UniProtKB/TrEMBL annotation:
One of its GO terms (cellular component) is motile cilium. It comes from Psilopogon haemacephalus (coppersmith barbet). Keywords: Cell projection, Cilium, Cytoplasm, Cytoskeleton, Flagellum, Meiosis, Repeat. This is Radial spoke head 1 homolog. The keyword Repeat applies. Its main location: cytoplasm. It is found in: Cytoplasm, Cytoskeleton, Flagellum axoneme. The gene is Rsph1. InterPro entries: MORN. Residues 175-186 have a biased composition (Acidic residues).
Length: 237
C-alpha cells in the first residue's frame, strides 16, 4: 500500500507512506519509485532506521535501532555501516570510530561498561588489530594486537609510578579461531602469555609546558614494583 506523491509517470516521487508485503513500513522521501532522501523505515520485528536513503538503500547519515536494544549512529554506504559511527551495544558497551563493510575497521575506541576498561587503537574486520592502548582503572597496556590478542613487545604503565616492560608470547594451548559476529562484544581474554623483562620508573613527559616532577617526588618503591608485577601475573592466570 502506498499513500503519497507521484511523478508524471505515476512512480512514487516526493513524500509518501508505504506498507510493504512483509509488514514493514516506510515514511519519507522517494525519487522515481525508489526510497531516496530522508526517511524512517520500521521493521516488523521492532527495529527501525531513521536517516538518509539512496536507491532503496541506507546511504549517508542515519541511526539504526536494533531489536536487542543496541543502536548504531553514523555513516552508511550501500546499506552497510561504513565510514565513522558510534555503536552502543545491548550490554552498554560502546564503540566509536571507523567502519568498513559493517565491521569495526580502522581506528576506534571500545569502552567496556562493566569494568570501565577502554581499548583505543586499530581494528581490522571487526577484530582488535594494530598499535593500541588497553586502559584499565589503575594501569594501562601499550603494545600491538593481532586477532584480538596482545602480541610481541609492550609495556604496562601503573599509576603508582612505574612501568613493566616485556612481551606477549604464544601460549602452548591453541584453542583455534572463531569468527566473531559483528554485534558480539570483543573479549578481554587472551591466548598469549605475558613475560616480564624489567620494571622501570615511569617515563616522564611534560604536558603543556609544565615542569615534570623531580625524581625525589616520584620514587620507585621496590614493594610497589613487586606488587605491580604480581598484578599483571594474576591477571594473566
Amino acid at each position: 500500500e502506498y499513500d503519497g506523491e507521484r511523478d508524471s509517470e505515476g512512480e512514487r516521487h516526493g513524500r509518501g507512506k508505504a506498507r510493504l508485503p512483509n509488514g514493514d513500513t516506510y515514511e519519507g522521501e522517494y525519487q522515481h519509485g525508489a526510497r531516496s532522501g530522508q526517511g524512517i523505515y520500521r521493521f516488523k520485528n521492532g527495529a527501525y532506521y531513521t536517516g538518509e536513503y539512496l536507491q532503496n538503500k541506507k546511504h549517508g547519515r542515519g541511526i539504526f535501532f536494533y531489536p536487542d536494544g543496541s543502536k548504531y549512529e553514523g555513516d552508511w554506504v550501500d546499506d552497510q555501516r561504513h565510514g565513522y559511527g558510534v555503536y552502543t551495544y545491548a550490554n552498554g558497551d560502546t564503540y566509536t570510530g571507523e567502519w568498513s563493510n559493517n565491521n569495526r575497521h580502522g581506528q576506534g575506541t571500545y569502552i567496556y561498561k562493566d569494568t570501565g576498561s577502554k581499548y583505543v587503537g586499530g581494528w581490522a574486520n571487526g577484530i582488535q588489530e594494530g598499535q593500541a592502548e588497553l586502559i584499565h582503572l589503575n594501569h594501562r597496556f601499550k603494545g600491538m594486537f593481532l586477532k584480538g590478542n596482545p602480541v610481541g613487545r609492550g609495556k604496562y604503565v601503573f599509576d603508582i609510578g612505574c612501568e613493566q616492560h616485556g612481551e606477549y608470547i604464544q601460549s602452548e594451548q591453541d584453542k583455534g579461531e572463531e569468527e566473531e559476529e559483528e554485534e558480539d562484544e570483543p573479549s578481554l581474554l587472551v591466548e598469549t602469555k605475558w613475560k616480564a623483562s624489567e620494571i622501570t620508573k615511569l617515563t616522564l613527559w611534560t604536558p603543556h609546558g609544565e615542569n615534570p616532577p623531580s625524581p625525589r617526588e616520584a620514587p620507585l618503591v621496590p614493594a610497589a614494583a613487586a606488587a605491580a608485577a604480581e598484578a599483571v601475573e594474576e591477571r594473566e592466570e
